[in-house]
Amino acid sequence: MTPKTYPYLHLPHYDFCIPALGYGTYFSPRSGREGNDGSVKRSVLTALKAGYRHIDTAALYECEEEVGEALREWFDMGGRREEVFVTTKFWNQNHSPLDVLASLTESLARLQLDYVDLYLMHWPISFNPTPLPASLDAPTFDTYDPALYHTRPIATLPNGKPSLNRDLSYNHISTWEAMEELYRRGLCRNIGVSNFTVKGLMEVCEYAEVKPVVNQVELHPYLPQPELLQFCKERDIILCAYSPLGSQTVEKEERVIADPVVRGIAEKRGCTEAQVLLSWAILHRGTVALPMSSDEGRIRGNSVVVELTEEEYGAIDGIEKRKRFVNFDEEWGVREAFGHGIFEYQ
Ligand SMILES: NC(=O)c1ccc[n+]([C@@H]2O[C@H](COP(=O)([O-])OP(=O)(O)OC[C@H]3O[C@@H](n4cnc5c(N)ncnc54)[C@H](OP(=O)(O)O)[C@@H]3O)[C@@H](O)[C@H]2O)c1
Asked: For site (Lowers pKa of active site Tyr), what residue positions does UniProt give (predicted)?
């Protein structure tokens, strides 16, 4: 029988569960959102009322205040903190231990929360921040004062590309240790990574005292990443699918949602293409999925569970087209970011 709501995924070695359906809060310029115009707040509230219990955000998305306002309103209506799983991430210029701490402190203030359920390293690639003001003595992790020390913008090169920090891009030990310290201090209940390959995960697993519980990556039928899925299952790392509908950054007709196999199943079933894709991601593959929509009806519709037959799941597995939609190589002046070797273009 088809379940009414999507399941929670449990990690056998950890005492926590993560709701398999999460609401994604990245609103690209295509969404029509302008500044803090309230659209993310409205959408998060719609999602919470529709039964989503997992909200995915990030410092980069510049919407944590709105997420915080929506959560506050939902708590005021009777929602409880422990019922909702909140993820945030630190951006690439904040990989140094102090900035990992400062970024989470700033995120928590914007979210109006004491802790997040999951704190992620957004990318394995690290940029340099702009220099510290000369007047400020560099604090340590223990002398950090949020009133005095703030995260800084990205330092850019004369060609406009971000200035890479090669040491912290190739070696994540100090960044991970800082995340472990935040976990021990109770500022985040779990720690994990995003945009990591099998090789990158193996490295972290080697030195981690607190293991990464999640790897959040682009996943959909055009980018199913079966080796990564298998590796994560073997290591009890939950794989979270971002852009599960094929991303908002490309033209509608290019999206996975417009794929003929997906369309055919949706038509036959009388459901939406998004429901087909989310069923495949969550019920068939055992991943978390983080769909975004700026439309109230679609937010609600995406939470409706549709169970497909093995034959239908098999037909989606059989889609041969391959496409990665999220790729910053050009913008960042790097290549092979996903191969985990970061080589600057000359
Ligand atoms: N860790 C990372 O590096 C990373 C990178 C990218 C994304 N993410 C996370 O993953 C989330 C989702 O990814 P995404 O936003 O790139 O893409 P997505 O969820 O795959 O696709 C979103 C797009 O699909 C449309 N859509 C949603 N429901 C639909 C439906 N039922 N029918 C037709 N169209 C529908 C939305 O348009 P409407 O708004 O018009 O409905 C939007 O344009 C993000 O919001 C973010 O939280 C993380």
From this structure: 89
